[in-house]
Task: inverse folding
């Protein structure tokens, strides 16, 4: 737990004197489940404007996984967003995360693995920005469809001194291959939906005018199949392609913890918070451009 402690202390120091303006903000659920039919569910991220992943998000996500894996009828669940701008962004950098909930806890990857092995197809329907932890939560689902005009993917962590720690390293390496994973992670820049599809990060880019109809039709089609057939096919594909282990994900998480606690990174993150990280909508929309202002050891005059 040494590296987890580093993350806890670093985030606490960065955020203790700063109040959140952009979230998490909801007083109600931040993941709303709609049962379109008994076999076809929707799970909507609805903590506007950013869909930050904080304690409430993780608690509700774990509870949702429990509901999904214990329900005898569900066959497909589509994850989408109520926001016009964001699918999901980063973890909460204002309020220190509960260590029993965050991605450094075994509960996180256990829940991801349970979804992967369940006889249920999970689909990310991306019509906005999905970056850092938001891109990772999309990557660990079975399928990803993106709006051609509105979906954008990114892993910005290396740009501020970290690395993806919630499954991004493991999943992008498998989905896109080594060279493209290096480009995505080390480039720390935004990919449009067409490029993300070309790289294999998402399954396909669909014109936005057709997006909702396509996703809904696809989900209803799969929901009509026998559940045992879905489960058997997933099991065989999982065995032949492999899935990251809990140890691999924890290695990435601990690497993140080491990185963000050394050198200029704590001061850089504090400066980014002062410059608008999680308090400015413009900063969050242009995260990749904004972090270029904080290169080096400082001081930064952003």
Result:
């Amino acid at each position: 737990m040494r590296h987890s402690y580093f993350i806890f202390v670093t985030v606490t120091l960065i955020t203790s004197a700063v109040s959140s303006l952009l979230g998490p903000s909801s007083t109600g659920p931040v993941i709303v489940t709609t049962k379109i039919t008994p076999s076809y569910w929707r799970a909507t991220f609805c903590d506007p404007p950013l869909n930050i992943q904080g304690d409430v998000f993780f608690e509700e996500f774990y509870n949702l996984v429990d509901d999904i894996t214990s329900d005898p009828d569900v066959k497909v669940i589509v994850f989408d967003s109520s926001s016009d701008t964001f699918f999901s962004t980063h973890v909460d950098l204002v309020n220190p995360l509960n260590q029993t909930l965050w991605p450094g806890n075994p509960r996180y990857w256990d829940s991801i693995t349970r979804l992967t092995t369940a006889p249920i197809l999970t689909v990310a329907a991306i019509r906005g920005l999905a970056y850092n932890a938001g891109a990772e939560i999309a990557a660990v689902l079975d399928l990803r469809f993106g709006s051609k005009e509105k979906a954008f993917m990114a892993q910005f962590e290396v740009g501020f001194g970290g690395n993806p720690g919630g499954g991004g390293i493991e999943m992008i390496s498998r989905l896109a291959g080594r060279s493209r994973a290096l480009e995505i992670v080390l480039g720390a820049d935004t990919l449009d939906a067409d490029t993300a599809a070309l790289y294999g990060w998402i399954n396909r880019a669909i014109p936005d005018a057709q997006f909702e109809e396509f996703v809904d039709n696809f989900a209803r089609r799969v929901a009509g199949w026998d559940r045992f057939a879905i489960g058997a096919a997933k099991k065989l594909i999982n065995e032949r392609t492999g899935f990251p282990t809990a140890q691999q994900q924890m290695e990435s998480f601990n690497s993140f913890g080491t990185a963000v606690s050394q050198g200029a990174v704590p001061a850089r993150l504090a400066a980014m918070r002062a410059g608008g990280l999680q308090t400015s909508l413009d900063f969050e929309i242009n995260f990749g451009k904004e972090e270029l202002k904080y290169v080096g050891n400082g001081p930064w005059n952003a």
